[in-house]
Amino acid sequence: LIVIATVQVARAISLEATLSFLGLGVPITEPSLGLLVANGYQYMLSGMTWISFYPGVALLITVVAINLVGDRLRDVLNPRGRE
Q1: Quick one: which of 19, 33, 52, 58 has the most CB atoms within 10 Å?
Q2: pLDDT at residue 72 above 80?
Q3: In the predicted model, is pLDDT for residue 3 greater than 90?
Q4: How far apart are CA 59 and CA 43, in angstroms?
């Protein structure tokens, strides 16, 4: 149950960022990694890629870290896996 919760948290973060990027998520006054990526998207062609790059990397690291924690919890809490 705990492992499933960690996967769902990572999935919820990804979904929120995706919806915010598309303009369907949180209001523009709320902070969101998806909004930061969307705001920097218009500057990508002018060479200012870092405006979207760093929030995207932060989102990627956050989701991967949560998934790794869930994977490690599964390894620790699964009694059948320890043989």
Answers
A1: 33
A2: yes
A3: no
A4: 19
Distance CA(50)–CA(71), nearest Å, equals 31
Residue for token digits 């043989």? 83
Quickly tell me which residue has 């919890």 as its tokens.
Answer: 73
d(C-alpha 16, C-alpha 36), whole Å: 12
Residues 63/10, Cβ–Cβ less than 8 Å? yes
The contacts of residue 49 (CB under 8 Å, 6+ apart) are 40, 43
Based on the number of CB atoms within 10 Å of its own CB, is 51 exposed (0-12), middle (13-18) or buried (19 or more)?
middle
Q: Give the other-Cβ count within 10 Å of 20's Cβ.
A: 22
The model carries a pTM of: 0.84
Which tens digits make up the pLDDT trace of 20-69?
999 998 998 999 999 999 989 888 888 898 899 999 999 999 999 999 99
